[in-house]
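Hi again,

Forgot to attach this to my earlier email, sorry! This is the prediction with glutamine bound. I've pasted everything inline since the attachment limit keeps bouncing my files.
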Amino acid sequence: MKFAVIQFPGSNCDFDLLWAIRDIMGVEAEFVWHDERSLTGFDGVLIPGGFSYGDYLRCGAIASFSNIMPEIKRLASEGKPIFGTCNGFQILVESGLLPGVLIRNDSLKFVSKWQALQVENNKTKFTSEYTKNELIHLPIAHGEGQYVADEDILADLKANNQIVFSYVEGNPNGSIENIAGIINKTGNVLGMMPHPERAMEKLLGSNDGVKMFASILKNFVEKIEPIDRVKL
Ligand SMILES: NC(=O)CC[C@H](N)C(=O)O
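Structure tokens for the complex follow:
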């Protein structure tokens, strides 16, 4: 199992994501530059946070036309795990791999803080290690994290249990229904504004992100290499 961590001009959480999957979880992973046209040999894709293309137009909009995107879409259609955090989530909605859109925070301010979240759906391949309604704490850091969707999309998300994480103890950006993270219908593409890759060790304030990566490895990886370094 080898993960690709996609780098765009302006990515700034790419090293954190590589560190989380490779150094904490002990799984093979490599950076792949956005201009590449092949993901042959990779079994999963992690899209990091940051400010791809300077956040021009709308965050993630320009990145969604990168040369690597058709390959990410191919892996998505093959049922491989695709995970995007923060700008990665924005890129996933802009490319149509997830429904809805992310716009400026209702405060019109960049928000950087620890955020309480509830695991709404622990029956996904990304969240099976959490308990239902588990309260977790992850960092958020974004200016355009307000998730919006029309009534039909929202009804669809609810009907299919696609809302995976929601903000609790306050909504930091005005997202509809406190939505912090969603999954696609087939259950292999997940996007979320909070940063699990920044909550991998208690020393850093929380290790609540570990269960998400542990879920991915448990549910998507057929042959698991020993992952001694996981500290649940
Ligand atoms: N940390 C990030 O990924 C930032 C996300 C995005 N560029 C924003 O400000 O909304």
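The longest strand covers residues 111-119. The mean pLDDT is 94.

That should be everything now.

G.
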